[in-house]
């Protein structure tokens, strides 16, 4: 077992990683897709184009990163009921996605936003390398359609500097297909199952000379496991590429995302385990829901230069939110930006040198209104405010191969981010006008080494600086009495990591140890989760995040019956150790929100057109629900089964069964300060997980 010793160094653990990987060949653990750390790019019709390279080239480029990264080929999730981001990221160690209901999730990488029970903090979401986050850094998951993806790239922490991201959690890049990278020119899919879930998906793509286009649409309707959890979504993505001249290509992206999600709210721990399908009474009385309409347009124009390639990205996002919770939150806003990015390889004193340079400038405004919630409709207006955010960033990263198998990486990002808040006041419950303006500035450096002793093995270590700027959900805090702008500090951290990845015969492995020393971490606690009031945020003076991220895949048997079949064992383990350090209130307590250990085991049998894969998701002990560490959710184990069969060329039938034992468990919590002091509706801070469910689908490609 790999152990992170509290207070001990992480870098010396690098010395044991290679022996660990070798020993794992005999341990019976493991599981990942094939990691290609070297080799030429793909050729042929699947090779992609200048704006969007083919999948082999995307994977090869990702694994040249000096640091922990992960690549998911979306082809691997085609035969699952992939409805949320968890369904495509659950095999990535270090990434935690906790489901509440529908598309309502908590996404955390290495504890980013660990205690944040809503939306997104500390991670940049990108689609095709272009930001999805709003100008203040906040983000949602409602416009992510797993059936519209071709690959997912995960850059943990400062390893996301290749996009200009330097937050604690890093970046998740969602790569959509083009007509040149699509799995088939036409895809039709119908699936559904438990809780009256029905989903239809289509994808059409064509190439015509220098032009190509693709259109993808998904309509989902589901009643949900719990009462008052109905989900209705319509997602449409399209892109059009055109080769303007040799070495010059432009690609336009467009998307429309419509969501209507009823909110069942949180329950007490007892209710979650005894009657998990019931609705929170306040959620029902207020007809709480989340209705989102988002439109996005973006462009990437790429130029192949004598040295390297220049990409110029531009984008605009319009988002409208109608969100009746404790009050009706009614918002409408725009985000827009431009980002040139150059990457190239050249020689310095006879040594190979890989360099990245980029700029990002983006801004946005959001009209934020609030009203008394009258059974889900607007009552008297209580707030009339304007939120404005802007950022200017410059970044660079350099890899100098001082030896043919050893690269020295250095990099840095300079940034200036502004948050301006204006509230006119004069309304019931919000009489005083407010105006606030905060600018956050800084430099985030990075240094590391990448050693490739064998073509299929890499060893790395790096030190990065991150800085998370508060978004308006942090800065504008509210309770039943009033709304106040709180001038929080930016969260700052130094993160050191060491790891190895690669392939030894039948074994594929990815192991990383990390430790982040954090100042002014943005920590949340629910003021009254039972009523749906957004959590308050404070700066914790000093905290520490450290952990272990392990994924192994081992081919246990090949040609098991003489028919070319295989048996593969996959093991994913995420160890989280997030705690306060000498805090005046919480001492060295664990930060509430995420469980300490998360394990996933998959045993896959494949025989030509048939696959069968039993799964086990195991959380030995649940997460603490409060920072005082007086109450925690129980651990749980979930059994599942995935199966698929190609019944004829181009036609695949699949089955996805989950929680086969119908276990009662808690999937997420809204962190509070001290659960021992809660009673009544205030104790409703737990979200029960879904019960037994079975989904099936049919996919046709031609």
Summarize the structure.
This protein is mainly β and 702 residues long. It is 5% helix and 56% strand.
What are the defining features of this structure?
33 strands; five-stranded mixed sheet; single chain; 22-stranded antiparallel β-barrel; 702 residues; mainly beta; 6 helices
What is the fold's blueprint, element by element?
Elements: H1 14-23, H2 55-62, E1 69-73, H3 86-89, E2 95-101, E3 104-109, E4 123-127, E5 130-131, E6 151-156, E7 170-175, E8 186-193, E9 197-208, E10 211-222, E11 231-245, E12 248-262, H4 269-274, H5 281-285, E13 289-304, E14 309-324, E15 327-348, E16 351-374, E17 377-403, E18 406-423, E19 434-454, E20 457-468, H6 472-475, E21 476-478, E22 483-485, E23 491-504, E24 507-525, E25 536-558, E26 566-580, E27 597-607, E28 610-619, E29 636-648, E30 651-658, E31 666-669, E32 686-688, E33 693-701
Number of helices: 6
Oligomer: single chain
Corresponding CATH superfamily: TonB-dependent receptor, beta-barrel domain
What's the CATH architecture name? Answer: Beta Barrel
For the record, the CATH class is Mainly Beta
Helix-and-strand structural type: mainly beta
* Number of strand segments: 33
Radius of gyration equals 24 Å
Portion of residues within helices: under 10%
> N-to-C terminal Cα separation, in Å?
47 Å
Low-confidence stretches are: 1-45
General form: globular
Overall mean pLDDT stands at 90
Strand content: over 45%
Largest sheet composition = 22 strands, antiparallel, barrel
Q: Which fold name fills CATH's third level, the topology?
A: Maltoporin, Chain A
Total domain count? 1
Organism: Methylobacterium variabile
Domain TonB-dependent receptor plug: 63-171
Subcellular location: Cell outer membrane
Keywords: Cell outer membrane, Membrane, Receptor, Signal, TonB box, Transmembrane, Transmembrane beta strand, Transport
């Amino acid at each position: 077992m790999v152990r992170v010793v509290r207070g001990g160094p992480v870098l010396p653990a690098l010395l044991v990683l290679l022996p660990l990987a070798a020993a794992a060949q005999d341990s019976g653990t493991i599981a990942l897709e094939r990691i290609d750390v070297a080799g030429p790019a793909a050729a042929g019709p699947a090779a992609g184009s200048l704006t969007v390279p083919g999948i082999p080239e995307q994977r090869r480029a990702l694994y040249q990163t000096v640091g922990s990264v992960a690549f998911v080929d979306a082809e691997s999730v085609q035969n699952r009921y992939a409805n949320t981001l968890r369904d495509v990221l659950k095999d990535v160690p270090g990434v935690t996605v906790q489901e509440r209901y529908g598309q309502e999730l908590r996404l955390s990488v290495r504890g980013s936003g660990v205690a944040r029970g809503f939306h997104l903090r500390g991670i940049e979401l990108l689609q095709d390398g272009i930001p999805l986050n709003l100008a203040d850094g906040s983000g949602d998951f409602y416009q992510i359609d797993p059936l519209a993806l071709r690959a997912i790239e995960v850059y943990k922490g400062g390893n996301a500097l290749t996009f200009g991201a330097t937050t604690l959690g890093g970046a998740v890049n969602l790569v959509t297909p083009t007509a040149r990278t699509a799995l088939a020119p036409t895809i039709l899919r119908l699936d559904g199952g438990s809780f009256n879930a029905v989903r239809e998906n289509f994808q059409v793509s064509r190439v015509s000379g220098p032009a190509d286009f693709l259109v993808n649409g998904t309509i989902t309707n589901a009643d949900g496991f719990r009462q008052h959890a109905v989900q209705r979504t319509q997602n449409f993505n399209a892109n059009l590429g055109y080769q303007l001249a040799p070495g010059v290509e432009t690609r336009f992206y467009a998307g429309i995302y419509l969501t209507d999600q009823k909110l069942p709210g949180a329950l007490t721990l007892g209710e979650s385990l005894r009657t998990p399908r019931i609705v929170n009474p306040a959620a029902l009385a207020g007809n709480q829901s989340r209705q989102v309409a988002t439109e996005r347009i973006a462009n990437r124009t790429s130029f192949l230069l004598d040295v390297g390639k220049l990409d110029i990205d531009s984008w605009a996002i319009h988002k409208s939110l109608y969100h009746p919770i404790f009050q009706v939150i009614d918002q409408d806003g725009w985000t827009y930006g431009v980002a040139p990015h150059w990457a190239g390889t050249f020689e310095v004193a006879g040594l190979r040198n890989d360099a990245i340079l980029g700029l990002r400038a983006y801004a946005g405004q959001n009209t934020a209104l609030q009203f008394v919630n009258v059974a889900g409709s607007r009552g008297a207006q209580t707030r009339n405010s304007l939120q404005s955010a802007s950022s200017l960033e410059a970044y660079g990263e350099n890899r100098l191969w001082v030896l043919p198998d050893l690269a020295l990486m250095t990099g840095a990002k300079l940034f200036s981010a502004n948050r301006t808040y204006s509230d006119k006041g004069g309304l019931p419950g919000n009489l005083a006008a407010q105006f606030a303006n905060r600018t956050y500035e800084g430099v985030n450096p990075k240094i590391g080494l990448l050693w490739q002793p064998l073509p299929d093995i890499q060893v790395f270590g790096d030190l990065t600086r991150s800085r998370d700027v508060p978004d308006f959900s942090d800065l504008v805090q509210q309770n039943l009495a009033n709304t106040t702008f709180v001038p929080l500090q930016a969260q700052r951290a130094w993160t050191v990591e060491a790891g190895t990845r690669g392939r030894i015969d039948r074994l594929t492995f990815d192991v990383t140890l990390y430790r982040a020393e954090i100042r002014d971490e943005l920590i949340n606690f629910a003021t009254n989760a039972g009523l749906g009031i957004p959590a308050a945020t404070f700066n914790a003076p000093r905290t520490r995040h450290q952990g272990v991220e392990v994924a192994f895949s081992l081919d246990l048997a090949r040609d098991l019956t003489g028919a070319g079949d295989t048996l593969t064992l996959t093991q994913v383990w995420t160890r989280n150790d997030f705690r306060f350090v000498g805090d005046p209130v919480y001492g060295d307590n664990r930060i509430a929100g995420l469980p300490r250990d998360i394990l996933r085991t998959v045993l896959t049998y494949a025989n030509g057109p048939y696959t069968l894969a039993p799964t086990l998701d195991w959380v030995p002990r649940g997460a603490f629900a409060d920072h005082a560490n007086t109450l925690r959710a129980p651990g749980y184990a979930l059994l599942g089964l995935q199966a698929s069969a190609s019944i004829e060329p181009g036609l695949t039938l699949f089955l996805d069964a989950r929680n086969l034992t119908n276990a009662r468990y808690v999937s997420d919590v809204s962190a509070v300060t001290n659960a021992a002091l809660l009673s009544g509706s205030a104790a409703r801070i737990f979200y029960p997980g879904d019960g037994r469910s079975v989904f099936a689908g049919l996919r046709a490609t031609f």
